[in-house]
C-alpha cells in the first residue's frame, strides 16, 4: 500500500520516471476527481438549462462585449453591469453561440466547474490529522461531500455564472499558500499571489479573498525578515496578476469614462456618467453587530434573502463556530487544571499549522465579506474551505472514540443533505429539448439592417444583441440604472439617436406569451420613460422576437401598481415559473419617432418632485443612497404626475404622487410605505424616523411637534 504522504500530497519532490508515474496513477485522487466530475454532470443535467435573470440580463452580453468592441455603439446595454470586467463570461458566450446543443455546453461548463471539488480535496489533504490511510481518505471525502452540499454551488453547476470558475482560481491560490507552510519557498507564494490577482481582476468581489489570504503567510515557519520578503513578493505578484488581466478592459473604461474600474470606485474617479458616491449593495449585509454574530446560524435556516435570493440553508458555518468554541473551552480547561501539555507528534505539526492558518484566514475573510456584501455567491471558495475545517476540527475534537467522531460527521453531512432535499430552492427547471442554449427568432430585416434599440425594463434583455445586425446599437434607458436625458448620459444617448435615425426601435417584453406576429403591446410605461428623450413608440407597427425555450417569464419591466392608499407604486411583476414544458416568450420591437408634443405642467411638476426627493435624501441618507439619483417619469395617475427615484445601494424606490411621498422595497416584496405629505417637504426640510430593523426598511415623517 502506498503511504498516506505519498498518496495524498504532491508536495514532496520525487524523481520523474516510471516509478513516479505508477505511484501517481495509483493515487485515489483520480478516482475522486472522476467521481466529482460525474456528480457535477448529473447535477447539471437534473437541474435543467439555466435561463436565469442574470443570464438574460448581462451574462451573454458580457461575453459578447469581451470579444467585440461595443463602446462606440452600445450604452449601458446591460444596465450597470455592462462595464464590469467581462472576460470570465467569454467562454460561456463562445460555447452558447457555437451551435452545440445546450446540454453539451452545460456539460462542458460542469466539467470545468467540478474542479472546485478537486481543489477542496487537495486542501483537505493538507489539514487532515495524521491517521491510518483509509481513515484519512474517508475524512477527505467527507470534506468534499460537505463542500458539494452547498445549495448555492449546486444551483450554479452547468450555468453561465462565473462565480464557481473564479472561485477555483481563488482556491488554487490558497492551496499554493497552504503548501508553502509545509515546504517554505518563494515560488508557491508568487504563483498563489498571481492567481489571486487574476481572480480579483476577473471578478472584483474576489479581492476580499486575496486580502485575507495574506493571513496565511503569517504561519509560514520562517523568521520575520523572511516573512516580510514573502509578503512583499505576494503583494507584487497579486498586483501583477490583477494588472495583467484587467489592463485591456480598464484602458477602454479609462478612455470612455475616465474611470478604469467603472462604474466601481466612482467616488474616487468621479466619472460624470455614474453617481459620484460609494457603491455598496446592502441586501445581505447585517443590520447590527448582533445580527452579524448570529449570521452563521441564520444561514443554517431555510429562509429567503439571508445570503442569497433563494432559500440556501447551510449548516457548515454554525457547526464550525460551535467546533471553535469547543476547542477553546477544551484548551482553557486544560490550562485551568494545569494539565501536562501532550507532545504533538512531529508528523501532525504541518497539518496543525495548516489548519490554524486556514482558520485564521477564513475568520478574516468572513468579516471582510460580511462587511462588503454578505452575498453567498461571492463566498463559494471560502465555503469549500469551511467544509474542510469542519471535518478537520471535528476529527481532532473527537479523535477518540473513533465511532463518536464518525457518527458526528455522518450526522452533520446527513443534516445538510436533508436541508438540500427539503429546505433549499433551486433554479427553475427548463428542459434541454435538444436545441441550442439561445434560440432567438427575429425578423430577417433586424438581422440585416443596423439600428438603435432602446430597451425598457429592469430586465435589459441584452442577450439579443449578438443576434442583431452587426453594427446595431443597444441602450437600456430605464432599468436598474435609469439614464437621464441631461448631462453626460443624455448627451451620449442623444448622439446615438442622431447617428441611427430613422432606424430607431423600442424593445419591451410582452407581459404574457402569445404567438400573434403583430401583438397589441401596452407601451404606456415605456412611453412615459421616453418622454425625457422626446421620443415615442408606436404600437401599430411592432414586430416580434421569439425566444424559444426561455422557460420563465422574467419580464421585469417597471409597472404601476396601486398602494393600499390608492396611490401608484413603481414595482416589478412576479415572474412566472416553468413547469418543465418548452415555453416560448416574446419581445415586442416597436418603431420610435420624435415626440414634439407639449405636456403642460410637466416641468413644474418635475421641479417640485426633485425638491421633495432631495429633501427626503438629505433627511435620511442611510436609506436613500446614492443621493440625487435620476428622477424618472411614470406617467399620470388620477390627474397626478408620478416621479420616482431608484436607489442602487439599498434597492429602494421612492416616489411622489397624489400629494404624498412613498417608498417601497421591491427586492424583499415589502408593502408600500407612506412617508408623509408632499407639501410638508416643499415648505421646509422634514425630520424623518428611518432605518433598517430585522432586515426591513422603515421611514416616516415625524410630527411637527417633534421636529
Model description:
The structure is a single chain. The chain has 707 residues and is of the alpha+beta class. The protein has three domains: 345 residues, no CATH class; 156 residues, no CATH class; 105 residues, no CATH class. Helix content is 47%, strand content 13%. The strands form four sheets. Strands 1, 2, 3, 4, 5, 6, 7 and 10 form an eight-stranded mixed β-sheet that branches. Strands 11-12-13-14-15 form a five-stranded antiparallel β-sheet. β13 and β14 form a beta hairpin. The N terminus is likely disordered.
Q: Averaging pLDDT over every residue, what do you get?
A: 87
Helix content: 40-55%
- State the helix count: 24
SS content category: alpha+beta
How many E-type strands? 17
The residue ranges in which pLDDT falls below 50 over 5 or more consecutive positions are 1-16, 513-520, 553-579
Total domain modules: 3
Rg to the nearest angstrom? 28 Å
- Biggest beta-sheet profile: 8 strands, mixed
Note the topology.
Blueprint: H1 4-8, H2 18-26, H3 29-47, H4 53-67, E1 74-75, H5 90-96, H6 102-113, H7 115-127, H8 133-148, H9 151-156, H10 163-182, H11 186-202, H12 207-217, H13 224-257, H14 266-269, H15 289-299, H16 316-336, H17 349-372, H18 380-397, H19 402-422, E2 439-441, H20 444-448, E3 452-456, E4 473-478, H21 487-500, E5 504-509, H22 524-530, E6 535-537, E7 543-548, E8 559-562, E9 568-571, E10 584-594, H23 602-619, E11 631-637, E12 640-647, E13 652-657, E14 660-664, E15 673-677, H24 678-683, E16 688-693, E17 696-701
Parallel strand pairs: 1-4, 3-4, 3-5
Antiparallel strand pairs: 2-7, 5-10, 6-10, 7-10, 8-9, 11-12, 12-13, 13-14, 14-15, 16-17
Amino acid at each position: 500500500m502506498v503511504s498516506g504522504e505519498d498518496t495524498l500530497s504532491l508536495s514532496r519532490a520525487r524523481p520523474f520516471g516510471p516509478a513516479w508515474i505508477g505511484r501517481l496513477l495509483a493515487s485515489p485522487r483520480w478516482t475522486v476527481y472522476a467521481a466529482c466530475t460525474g456528480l457535477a454532470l448529473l447535477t447539471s443535467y437534473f437541474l435543467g438549462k439555466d435561463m436565469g435573470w442574470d443570464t438574460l440580463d448581462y451574462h451573454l452580453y458580457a461575453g459578447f462585449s469581451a470579444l467585440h468592441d461595443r463602446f462606440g455603439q452600445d450604452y449601458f446595454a446591460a444596465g450597470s453591469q455592462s462595464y464590469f470586467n467581462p472576460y470570465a463570461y467569454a467562454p460561456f458566450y463562445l460555447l452558447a453561440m457555437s451551435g452545440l446543443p445546450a446540454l453539451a455546453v452545460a456539460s462542458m461548463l460542469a466539467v470545468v466547474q467540478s474542479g472546485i471539488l478537486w481543489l477542496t480535496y487537495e486542501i483537505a489533504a493538507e489539514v487532515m490529522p495524521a491517521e491510518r490511510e483509509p481513515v484519512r481518505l474517508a475524512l477527505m471525502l467527507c470534506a468534499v461531500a460537505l463542500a458539494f452540499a452547498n445549495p448555492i454551488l449546486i444551483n450554479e453547476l452547468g450555468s453561465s455564472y462565473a462565480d464557481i470558475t473564479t472561485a477555483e482560481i481563488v482556491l488554487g491560490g490558497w492551496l499554493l499558500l497552504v503548501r508553502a507552510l509545509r515546504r517554505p519557498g518563494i515560488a508557491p507564494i508568487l504563483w498563489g499571489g498571481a492567481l489571486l490577482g487574476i481572480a480579483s481582476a476577473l471578478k472584483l468581489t474576489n479581492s476580499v479573498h486575496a486580502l485575507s489570504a495574506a493571513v496565511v503567510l503569517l504561519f509560514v515557519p520562517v523568521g520575520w525578515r523572511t516573512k516580510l520578503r514573502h509578503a512583499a513578493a505576494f503583494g507584487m505578484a497579486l498586483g501583477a496578476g490583477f494588472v495583467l488581466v484587467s489592463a485591456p478592459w480598464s484602458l477602454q473604461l479609462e478612455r470612455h469614462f475616465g474611470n478604469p474600474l467603472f462604474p466601481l470606485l466612482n467616488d474616487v474617479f468621479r466619472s460624470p456618467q455614474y453617481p459620484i458616491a460609494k457603491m455598496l449593495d446592502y441586501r445581505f449585509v447585517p443590520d447590527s453587530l448582533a445580527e452579524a454574530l448570529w449570521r452563521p446560524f441564520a444561514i443554517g435556516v431555510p429562509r429567503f434573502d439571508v445570503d442569497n435570493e433563494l432559500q440556501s440553508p447551510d449548516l457548515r458555518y454554525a457547526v464550525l463556530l460551535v467546533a471553535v468554541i469547543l476547542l477553546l473551552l477544551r484548551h482553557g480547561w486544560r490550562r485551568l487544571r494545569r494539565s501536562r501539555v501532550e507532545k504533538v507528534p512531529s508528523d501532525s505539526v504541518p497539518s496543525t499549522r495548516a489548519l490554524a492558518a486556514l482558520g485564521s484566514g477564513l475568520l478574516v475573510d468572513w468579516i471582510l465579506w460580511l462587511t462588503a456584501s454578505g452575498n453567498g455567491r461571492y463566498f463559494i471558495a471560502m465555503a469549500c474551505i469551511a467544509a474542510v475545517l469542519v471535518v478537520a476540527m471535528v476529527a481532532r475534537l473527537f479523535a477518540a472514540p473513533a465511532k463518536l467522531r464518525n457518527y458526528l460527521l455522518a450526522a452533520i453531512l446527513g443534516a445538510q443533505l436533508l436541508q438540500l432535499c427539503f429546505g433549499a430552492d433551486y433554479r427553475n427547471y427548463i428542459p434541454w429539448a435538444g436545441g441550442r442554449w439561445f434560440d432567438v427568432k427575429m425578423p430577417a430585416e433586424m438581422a440585416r439592417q443596423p439600428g438603435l434599440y432602446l430597451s425598457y425594463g429592469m430586465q435589459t434583455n441584452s442577450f439579443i444583441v449578438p443576434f442583431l445586425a452587426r453594427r446595431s446599437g443597444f441602450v437600456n434607458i430605464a432599468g436598474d440604472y435609469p439614464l437621464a436625458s441631461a448631462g453626460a448620459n443624455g448627451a451620449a444617448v442623444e448622439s446615438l439617436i442622431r447617428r441611427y435615425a430613422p432606424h430607431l426601435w423600442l424593445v419591451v417584453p410582452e407581459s404574457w406569451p402569445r404567438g400573434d406576429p403583430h401583438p397589441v403591446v401596452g407601451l404606456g410605461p415605456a412611453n412615459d420613460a421616453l418622454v425625457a428623450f422626446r421620443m415615442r413608440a408606436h404600437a401599430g407597427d411592432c414586430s416580434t422576437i421569439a425566444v424559444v425555450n426561455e422557460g420563465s417569464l422574467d419580464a421585469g419591466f417597471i409597472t404601476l401598481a396601486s398602494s393600499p392608499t390608492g396611490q401608484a407604486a413603481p414595482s416589478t411583476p412576479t415572474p412566472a415559473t416553468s413547469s418543465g414544458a418548452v415555453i416560448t416568450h416574446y419581445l415586442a420591437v416597436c418603431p420610435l419617432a420624435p415626440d414634439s408634443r407639449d405636456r403642460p405642467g410637466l416641468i413644474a411638476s418635475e421641479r417640485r418632485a426633485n425638491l421633495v426627493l432631495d429633501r427626503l435624501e438629505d433627511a435620511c441618507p442611510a436609506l436613500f443612497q446614492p443621493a440625487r439619483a435620476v428622477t424618472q417619469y411614470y406617467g399620470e395617475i388620477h390627474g397626478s404626475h408620478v416621479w420616482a427615484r431608484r436607489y442602487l445601494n439599498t434597492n429602494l424606490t421612492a416616489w411622489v404622487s397624489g400629494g404624498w411621498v412613498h417608498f417601497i422595497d421591491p427586492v424583499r416584496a415589502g408593502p408600500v410605505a407612506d412617508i408623509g405629505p408632499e407639501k410638508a417637504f416643499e415648505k421646509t426640510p422634514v425630520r424623518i424616523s428611518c432605518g433598517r430593523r430585522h432586515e426591513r426598511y422603515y421611514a416616516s415623517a415625524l410630527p411637527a411637534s417633534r421636529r
